[in-house]
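Bumping with the actual sequence this time:
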Amino acid sequence: MEIIKSHLENNEVWLHGSRSGDSPKPHSDVDLVIIDPPLVSQKTLSLLKLDFEDSNLPFRVDISLWSELTESFQEIIKDKHEIFYLPPKE
């Protein structure tokens, strides 16, 4: 959570995939999608991914931007996700 907070100020982040309600296997990765807008720069996204890669987490973290997903994939995620991070209210 601290990694996300250090890079994102105003974006909600959703957890989806096998770790979202299903029975994930111990080696399952974590699938996160950043809800944008507000716009997330490619630099910010790259730094976020790098920090997750350099972390001591025992699993891989895949990060996507909502705006870059196909509409059909967005519908799948809408039906089955958990809110992973909510930005602080202003």
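The tokens above came from a reply further down the thread. Residues 4 and 84 are 10 Å apart (CA to CA).
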